[in-house]
Amino acid sequence: MSDLLSIILAAGEGTRMKSDLTKVLHQVAGKAMVEHVIDNINEINSQVVAVVGHQGDKVSKLLEGKGVKSVLQKEQLGTGHAVLQAASYIKEHQGSVLILYGDTPLLSPQRLKRLIRQREEQGAAAAVLTAYLEEPSGYGRIIRDNNGYIERIVEEKDASSTEKEIKEINSGVYCFDSKCLEAALTRLDNNNAQQEYYLTDTISYINETDGVIIPVVCEDNNEIIGVNDRVNLSLVEKIIRKRINNCHMKNGVTIIDPAVTYIDEGVTIGRDSIIYPFTYLAGKTEIGSYSVVGSHCRLNNAKIADKVNIVDHCIIQDSKISDGVNIGPFAYIRPGSIVEKGAKIGDFVELKKARIGENSKVPHLSYAGDVEIGKGTNVGAGTIFANYDGQDKHKTKIGDNVFIGSNTTIVAPISIGDGGKTGAGSVVTKDVPEAVTVVGVPARTFDKTKGGSEDN
């Protein structure tokens, strides 16, 4: 294939979405739908320009992060008018120009490559991706000549009753020779029912100048689905998620019930891991090999290592879990937490910016916020790390091999040295030295020789 210029039409508001957010920014499997289009094009190695309009600043900001240039269509006066906004790029380009919509996230790179290749191999002025639909209502109809080439494309509102019976439709995806497109765009007018400048009118001009327009039929009608409303959005989401799940399963991941398992496109999972139903793996979540994620879990940007066992109903956000960790059920691991190798985070435990050391345990009913816990430490049930004084957050540091008794409250800022212990129900307000046991409210040093306690 020759050098390629791709133009994405992304200026429409999408009024049928009934949304304050412009259509192409709606999420599909964890990414804005226009991002799916861009990623598919990028597999073809193309210069990409997007025509933006409604909420153009928001769309342009997203596109800039993807390395895509944008041009503004101030008034939405039709698809031909939209392409005219990129006229300077077309003029400078030599070769194929691919035109497609920003609301068609299902188009595969293979399909686009085939469209481009067939135009170039046949030396056609343009190629149009078409499809056959049993119910073609709403689409422009393909009118072929006696040689099977495209003679013209008739929009639904301008079609005669006979033309409306035609089953072959225009997908809205085109590949033009750049010079043919440049010339055709100068001939557009708005003499039609909608008083808009149709890109499809370029087909008539090319035929008048003895150019050839070939149809390239898309056998998978799902690929050309455009998102016009929330019903379309849900259908596209379902198809993409099925593709994602199938890819993971083919790569050695067990997904117990793919129909009710939701995995974003940016997620990676190692082989021999198992994902149970009703689980949502979002963002840039990474899961290693031989790990298990139970039912009703939600992981967002989580880094999960190998041989991790996550029991049902857990939430893990922007946190790192090391090898051999056991989590849950009903654990909530908030952003900025790190759980080291072999540790255990049990039922109804909440972590926030916490670092739990190797082989340490927070087994039950505890809150650990802004805390660093060393190796081999056990935190008893009902323990609270009180990190907030009503105005500021404070940190707690717990050493290695510490034993925290059940229902202990640790009032930050505070530290407990290696081998330290707290009695059940203690309220610790002062630092505890190494190998010292404290008990009581407030906690005091426990003196075994006297059978009681004294201020620590």
UniProtKB/TrEMBL annotation:
UniProt KW Transcription keyword: no
CC cofactor note: Binds 1 Mg(2+) ion per subunit.
Cofactor: Mg(2+)
Domain MobA-like NTP transferase: 7-131
Residue numbers binding UDP-N-acetyl-alpha-D-glucosamine: 9-12, 23, 73, 78-79, 101-103, 140, 155, 170, 228, 334, 352, 367, 378
EC number of the protein: 2.7.7.23, 2.3.1.157
Gene Ontology CC terms: cytoplasm; membrane
One example GO MF annotation: UDP-N-acetylglucosamine diphosphorylase activity
Binding residues annotated for Mg(2+), in chain numbering: 103, 228
Keywords: Acyltransferase, Cell shape, Cell wall biogenesis/degradation, Cytoplasm, Magnesium, Metal-binding, Multifunctional enzyme, Nucleotidyltransferase, Peptidoglycan synthesis, Repeat, Transferase
Binding positions (acetyl-CoA): 381, 387-388, 406, 424
Catalytic reaction(s) noted: alpha-D-glucosamine 1-phosphate + acetyl-CoA = N-acetyl-alpha-D-glucosamine 1-phosphate + CoA + H(+); N-acetyl-alpha-D-glucosamine 1-phosphate + UTP + H(+) = UDP-N-acetyl-alpha-D-glucosamine + diphosphate
Gene Ontology biological-process annotations: cell morphogenesis; cell wall organization; lipid A biosynthetic process; peptidoglycan biosynthetic process; regulation of cell shape; UDP-N-acetylglucosamine biosynthetic process
Catalytic residues of the enzyme: 364
Pathway given in the UniProt record: Nucleotide-sugar biosynthesis; UDP-N-acetyl-alpha-D-glucosamine biosynthesis; N-acetyl-alpha-D-glucosamine 1-phosphate from alpha-D-glucosamine 6-phosphate (route II): step 2/2; Nucleotide-sugar biosynthesis; UDP-N-acetyl-alpha-D-glucosamine biosynthesis; UDP-N-acetyl-alpha-D-glucosamine from N-acetyl-alpha-D-glucosamine 1-phosphate: step 1/1; Bacterial outer membrane biogenesis; LPS lipid A biosynthesis
Start and end residues of each stretch annotated as N-acetyltransferase: 252-456
Pfam families associated with the record: GMPPB_C, Hexapep_2, NTP_transf_3
Main location: cytoplasm
Mannose-1-phosphate guanyltransferase C-terminal domain span: 262-359
Assembly: Homotrimer.
Function: Catalyzes the last two sequential reactions in the de novo biosynthetic pathway for UDP-N-acetylglucosamine (UDP-GlcNAc). The C-terminal domain catalyzes the transfer of acetyl group from acetyl coenzyme A to glucosamine-1-phosphate (GlcN-1-P) to produce N-acetylglucosamine-1-phosphate (GlcNAc-1-P), which is converted into UDP-GlcNAc by the transfer of uridine 5-monophosphate (from uridine 5-triphosphate), a reaction catalyzed by the N-terminal domain.
Protein name from the UniProt record: Bifunctional protein GlmU
Gene: glmU
